[in-house]
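Exercise 7. Predict the joint structure of the components listed below.
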Amino acid sequence: MFALVDVNNMYVSCERVFRPSLVGRPVVVLSNNDGCAIARSNEAKDLGVKMAQPWFQVRHLEREAGLIALSANFELYGDMSSRMMTLAARYAPRQEVYSIDECFLDFEGVSGDLVGIGRDLRATVLQWTGLPTSVGFGPTKTLAKLANHVAKTADRKPGSYPAALAQVCDLGAMSRAELDDVLRVTDVGDVWGIGRKIGARLHEGGIRTVLDLVHADMASLRRQFSVVLEKTVLELRGTTCLSVEDAPSPNQQIMCSRSFGEPVTGLSELTEIVSQFASRVAEKARAQQSAAGAVQVFITTSAFRKRDAQHGPSVTMPLVRPTADTRALVGAAVHALAGMYRPGFNYVKAGVMLVDLRPQGQEQGELDLFTGAAEQEAVAHHQDRSRLMGALDALNRRFGRGAVGVASAAHRTAHSSHIARQERRSPRYTTRLDEVPTARA
DNA sequence: TCTGGGGTCCTAGGACCC
DNA sequence: TCTGGGGTCCTAGGACCC
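Solution:
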C-alpha cells in the first residue's frame, strides 16, 4: 500500500504559519518578477484566480475583494518542506520526496489501520510545522495520488465526495462498488499523468470519467496514445507499475533561467546575466557531484510584445572534457552567447542548461600522443581546480550566494535593470537570523 | 505597461552501420 | 528501367509533472 502526502496550497500555507492574519483571506504567491500566481489559497481559487495566471490580470481583485499577493520566498518554502518531509518519513519504511510539497510513502509490510496512521501523520505535521496536509492511500502510486485528490476535494468542496473521505482517504479499503462510485464522479483529467491534451482527446473519444478509463480497451489506448497512458490505466486497475524511489538519482540536466525585470539589449549586460546563470548551474552540478558534457544557452525576446522583432536563438556547446568548473562553464556559455547575440533586440529572458551529465571522476581517458607530461599536468591542474571550486562553494555557503565568483558575473551596477522585481517578499523566518520573527510582550 | 522556473519520459524520424 | 533488409544511435519535439 502506498500513501501520497501533500501540503495543501503549500506556498500560501507556509506564509500563513508566520502571518496568521492571512488565514481565511484570499492569498496568492507570485512567481519570479511578480509575474504570475503560482500558489493560491482556497479563497483565491474561489475568486477565480487560475494557476499561473498573470498578476496584472487579477490585480484589480486587490481592491475589489481584498486579494493579497506575496512574492515567492523559496528559501522559506524549502526549509518548511524539509521539516515536513522529515516528519512524514517517520511513518513508513520508505519515502520518496516527489516535489517540494509532496512525498510518497511505501507501507509495504505495514499492517493496521492506515486511515488512523494517516490522521496521526496529518495532525503531527500540522502541530509541529503548522502546515495542513492531505493524505491518500492506494494499492499503487497512481491510486494513492487519486486518493489524495479525493481527500483534498472532499475537504474543500462538501458534497463532491462522501464527507468521510475528507483530509485522509484510503481507496484500498473500499469495496468495488464504493470505489466505482468514486471513479464515476472523477474526471479523467484529475488522474496523475493525464494532462490537458490527452484529457481532451479522451473526452472526444467518450472516455470522460476515471471509471470509463478503467473499463476502456487497453490495446486501443496503447495504439492511440502510448505506453505511458497504458501504465497509468494499469495502475488505476491496481497493477503496480511504479515503485517508490527512495534513493533519488542525480538530475540528468540542470537549468537556470529567468525573465528579466526589464528588457535587455546589450551584449555586456547579457554576458553578466549568462555568467551568473552558468555559475549557478556549475554550483548545482558540483552539489550532486556531476560533470557536464555540454552547455546549452538560450536568450529570447517576448512573444507578448507583439510589436518587437523576435529572436530566440539557442546554442549547445560541447565541452572537450566534462567539467563542473565554474570558469570553464562560464567561458563556454559566454562564448555561445557571443555567437548568437544580435544587437537591436529586446531580450526578456535567458537560460543556461547543463546536459550530458555524468558522475564526476568518471572521465574518458586521453591518448597521450606527446610526452606524457601533458597528461600529468592535466591531472595536477584538475586537482587544483576541484580544490578551488570546493573553496568557492564553502565561501558562498558561509557568506551568501554570490559572495565570491567569476568577474564576468559581478553585479556591476547596484540596480541592474534585469534584477527581478520582488516587492512583496516575506522575511526568511526560519533560515536568516536577522529575519526571525519578533515576539512582542 | 505587466505573462514562472524548473524537471521527466517517450516517440518519430534522420543519419549512419553492415 | 529495375534499387534490400536488417540494425543502432541521436535529436527534436511533444506530452506530462510540480
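Discussion. The radius of gyration of chain A is 25 Å.
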